Amino acid sequence: MRSIGSIIFSALLAFSVGLSAGEIGMVLKAKGSVEVHRGSETLKAKKKFKVEAGDRIVTGKKDQVFLRMIDKSKIIIRPNSEVVLADLVYEKKSTDKQETSVLKGGIRAVSGEIAKKNRDNVKFSAGTATIGIRGTDIEVAMIGDGADDRAGIYNYVHDGLTEMKLETGQTALIEKEKSGFTPKDPRPGEPLLQILDDRPAFLRSSGFDTLMRQLTNPRVPGIR
C-alpha cells in the first residue's frame, strides 16, 4: 500500500515539472480516452499533459480526468462530458480570474488561490446558468433525458457556498449539501431556479474523488 505522503508527493512533483507561458494546469490522473481539442488539433490527455486556456476537453462514457491548475485549484471532469477551460490568469493580482464552461456532462471543482483573494473572479457556466463561488467544493452538471435525475442543470455544494444565476435574472445562494437546479423543461408555473434538499443520483464517488480529498485534506487515508 502506498502511503498518503508518497501519493501527494508524486502528484505535486508531476505538477511542478516545467510549466511555461500559456499553460494553466496539468493532468494528474486520466482514465480511458480523454481528448483535448486545441484549435485544429485533437490531443490525448495523459498524466503530466499540460492544459492551456481555451482547451476543450472531451471524455467518453467511462473516462475521467483530474486537473490541477496553476493556482492550486482542482477539477475532475466526469465521464461523458465536454468542458472548456475558457480562461485562467494567475499573477497574484486583483485581475486574476478563472472561467470554466460545462457544455455537457459535469465536473467537480475545488477552489484555489484565486478564490481566496478574488472570489468574484471565479466563474463556472453551464447552459443558461452562471455559478459564482465563495471558497468551495462543488459539482456542476448538465443532466439529459433518460437519467436517474430529472433533466436540467445542477449545482451541488459539497462544501462552502455558491451563487447560481440564470440569464433571466433569477439568483439563489446554494449552501452546503444542497443543490441549485434549473429544469430543462419547466412545468407550468414551476420556478426556473430551485434549491433541492435531496442529494442528486448523479453524485457517485470514485478514485478521482478520493485523490481530490487527499490533496485537499492530507489526513485522508491513502489509496490502496
Give me the secondary-structure topology:
Blueprint: H1 4-16, E1 23-31, E2 34-38, E3 41-44, E4 50-52, E5 56-59, E6 64-69, E7 74-77, E8 82-89, E9 97-110, H2 113-118, E10 122-126, E11 129-133, E12 137-143, E13 152-159, E14 161-166, E15 171-175, E16 179-183, E17 194-196, H3 207-216
Parallel strand pairs: 9-10
Antiparallel strand pairs: 1-4, 1-6, 2-3, 2-5, 5-8, 6-7, 7-9, 8-9, 9-12, 10-11, 11-14, 12-13, 13-16, 14-15, 16-17
CATH architecture: Sandwich
Q: State the total count of DSSP E strands.
A: 17
Total count of helical runs of at least 4 residues: 3
CATH topology: Jelly Rolls
- Give the termini separation: 5 Å
Low-confidence stretches: 1-20
Instruction: Please give the share of residues in helix.
Output: 10-25%
* Strand coverage percent: over 45%
Could you say which overall geometry the principal axes of the C-alpha atoms support? globular
Which descriptors apply to this entry?
224 residues, mainly beta, Jelly Rolls, 17-stranded mixed β-sheet, 3 helices, 45% strand, globular, disordered N terminus
